[in-house]
Amino acid sequence: MIEKINTLIKQASGFSASGINDIENFRIYYIGKKGLITTLFQEFKTIAPEERKEIGKKINELKTIVNDKIKTEKFRLLSTKKTEEKKDLSLPGDLLIPGSRHPISLVRNEIVEIFARLGFIISEGPEIEDDEHVFSKLNFTAEHPARDMQDTFFINRKSAEQSEKNDILLRTHTSSVQVRVMENQKPPIRTISPGRVFRNEAISARAHCIFHQIEGLYIDKKVSFADLKQTLLYFSKAMFGEETSIRLRPSYFPFTEPSAEMDVTCKICGGKGCNVCKYTGWLEVLGCGMVDPNVLENCNIDSQVYTGYAFGMGIERIAMLKYHINDLRMYFENDLRFLEQFRYSF
Ligand code: PHE
Questions:
Q1: Domain boundary, last residue among 29, 46, 81
Q2: Quick one: 55 and 153 in the same domain?
Q3: Ligand 1 pocket: which of 215, 231, 257, 315 to mutate (most atoms <8 Å of CB)?
Q4: Whether pLDDT at 174 is above 90
């Protein structure tokens, strides 16, 4: 029996197909329901137990060879077929459809470019951060609600007895990058930090657990609120059009004092009032303020000598206003019907 199998192995190894039908016949001949290998296994039952081990091995070897042969022959036929195919060189070429940039990237690039004109440089930092850079150094008190489990995704939360400062978490804003810049650079500092941020929120049309921010920071001697206002006005006109006006409403952030929220005139109704601006004529776009002296001191910058301003905005929100997108989830669904609309925007 061994000899018989050896001849079959030789035969199968030497097989070469000239068409796809040959391969099918080869398959049926060896491993079809009534094929040779089935017969061999039937014979196998009748042989003496001491021979079984060796013969069983041989039959399996044959089976592997046949299966491999089927695969390699199929591959060989398909690849040679392609090169032999006759080409009609007069046919028109395939239509090449260019890819498109994601609206978040488009708006991010536009914002970065506007601030670059004013001398701001980009800084980036880690998405996985520690409590110190996201909260403590930014003057968040220990009980501040933003630290709560509801808002922050904690990766490694220390127990109450351990120092709270060492919590590892996903950054909830890119202000953490600015803390790192302040720690490592001497003023004047003029930087913007774009990036992904994470908050533990239920996903809906108006909220998402991942979104993008751009935050700006300017620190030097004699930086005033007037500088902040002028910079934001310049940005708003460049971003939303020359006719845009801004207004600043008092607000609160732990890391700025005074703090404000900035609105721009509604582009859709031109300030007259519509359902997008909820008939106020204004749209809220960012938070800002003068850097709290405590924050400067926490980062070893002398608050007697230096002052600074900071601002931060959500890229999704700006893109919503710019492109009239009304559902945040669209940014993350990768629906081509949505993405293809940005094909010719750069
Ligand atoms: N970091 C704030 C936020 O995430 C935005 C902000 C930045 C506000 C800088 C004021 C100054 O909401």
A1: 81
A2: no
A3: 215
A4: yes
